[in-house]
Amino acid sequence: MSPPRKPTAKKFGPKKFGTKNPSARNPGVNTASGRPPGFKTGEKKAGPSTRSHGASSPGAKTSRAKLPGTKSAAAQAPGSGQHALHIKVKTAKKRTVSSARWLERQLNDPYVAAAVREGYRSRAAYKLKEIDDKYHLLKPGMRIIDLGAAPGGWSQIAAEKVKSLDGKGAHRGQVVAIDYLEMGDLSGVTALVLDFTAPDAEQTLKSLLRDGRADGVLTDMAAPTVGHTRTDHLRIMGLAEAAAHFAADVLEDGGWFLAKVFQGGTGNTLLDMLKQNFATVRHVKPPASRSDSAELYVLATGFRRRDKNELRDPRNE
């Protein structure tokens, strides 16, 4: 009987990579890069769309839309195709559904963010800025009255444009803001706590302006709404008509008037009065005015100065 054969010890060395058939170890994987076939180095993997609410898989990058006023050439205003990460707000113990909805809209509004960043008192500042960019109303040296000015966003834009902050001589403008609400100090703005419909308001304003006249009157006033469409419309139209007659008393020849109205038609009384006393009357809606808002602006330019007794009021004809 032959002696038993001794078992041969098998030698295990380090694994060698770069074999002729790497897919045999892990089919479908490129061993040189550890990536699936066709996945090129430097390419970014497409993630789920963030189009509606900015939702994405964990770790995925989401881009925020550029805000108005940024220096980047790619800066986009709302509705331009850029999509921001949408912030959702839930109702809390002391927060109603309507207040949660308002807060959510504010948090996702790029104009609100831009106003905070640039130091404007309200997002409404961009409405006047956009209107002026198109129609070139505000010029250095002008005298401007802002009716119902609180919290002061429009007055800030006017002060910048007419150079009531840093202008000199004939190029130094004036901005007089009036509201029955306290709005605090603003650089380059004379603010009055007074109702513009008060009997002494016109004379007080004239006493503050150079030569007692204004080159432009603007108002972003809106009466508190009561929820009844017809009533709300009549109330804001009443304010616009009062502002128009006020403007006709203080405007210099060639001046202009800008006021908020509601969609659904500017009242015939107001339109007739403006057309008879101004060369051009048009309706405008700047991009900063929310698309779901009923607000609209009436702009009248080329005021024809008349004596107070000659001012035409269709209600008296």
Secondary structure layout plus pairing:
Elements: H1 97-107, H2 110-118, H3 125-135, E1 143-147, H4 153-162, E2 174-179, E3 190-193, H5 201-208, E4 214-219, H6 229-250, E5 251-262, H7 268-277, E6 278-284, E7 295-303
Helix pairs in contact: 3-4, 6-7
For the biggest sheet, the summary is: 7 strands, mixed
Characterize the overall form: globular
Q: Report Rg.
A: 32 Å
Task: Compute the average pLDDT.
Answer: 74
Distance between the termini: 140 Å
By DSSP (H or I, 4+ residues per run), the number of helices equals 7
Query: What is the count of β-strands?
Result: 7
**SSE order:** HHHEHEEHEHEHEE
Structural class: alpha/beta
**Strand ordering within the main sheet:** 3-2-1-4-5-7-6
Helix-residue proportion: 25-40%
Tell me the strand percentage band. 15-25%
Low-pLDDT windows of residues: 14-76, 78-83
Architecture overview:
- The protein has a seven-stranded mixed β-sheet with strand order 3-2-1-4-5-7-6, sandwiched between helices.
- The longest helix has 22 residues, at 229-250.
- The protein has seven helices and seven strands.
- The protein has helices spanning 97-107, 110-118, 125-135, 153-162, 201-208, 229-250, 268-277, and strands spanning 143-147, 174-179, 190-193, 214-219, 251-262, 278-284, 295-303.
- The model is unreliable at 14-76 and 78-83 (pLDDT under 50).
- The chain is of the alpha/beta class and 317 residues long.
- Helices cover 26% and strands 15% of the residues.
- Helix 6 runs parallel beside helix 7 (268-277).
- Strand 1 (143-147), helix 4 and strand 2 form a beta-alpha-beta unit.
